[in-house]
Design goal:
The chain is mostly helical. The N and C termini lie close together (6 Å). It has a two-stranded antiparallel sheet. The chain has one domain.
């Protein structure tokens, strides 16, 4: 049976997956552009987009794996090379920018009747033997 809770969980999963993938793509592009010689492990890690999620009865948990030094790469170039620092949108700018400017508004206001209907139809198409709401 396709319930309203199932549609809400699917909507949340789609929005968070979309935005996590966007964060990883942006970070990978920045790393490949600014560190062409010494970024092999970091760039390949970001291109794999290592995140998973688990869904329980009442909650969903998303696990995003980040190299520890990724957080500090943009801090390292604080005063030495200001031109490079401005191009390094690796952690704070990209992560918080996407989460607060795109993910949260979509989760708050994005589940309209049209999207709810579309997700319900997608779920029905995936398993046509279930009953409607």
């Amino acid at each position: 049976m396709i319930t309203d809770d199932l549609i809400k969980k699917e909507f949340i999963t789609r929005v968070v997956n979309r935005d996590i993938r966007f964060i990883y793509k942006t970070q990978e592009a920045v790393v490949r552009e600014n560190f062409p010689d010494g970024s092999g492990a970091l760039a390949s890690h970001l291109s794999r987009q290592p995140f998973t999620f688990s869904s329980g009865d009442a909650s969903q948990t998303f696990f995003v794996r980040v190299f520890p030094y990724l957080r500090f790469l943009d801090i390292r170039y604080r005063r030495q090379q200001m031109g490079l620092r401005r191009k390094l949108a690796l952690y704070n700018r990209v992560v918080y920018g996407v989460l607060y400017n795109e993910t949260l508004p979509d989760l708050r206001y994005g589940l309209t009747a049209d999207i709810r209907k579309g997700i319900g139809e997608d779920l029905m198409a995936a398993n046509p033997n279930t009953n409607n709401i």
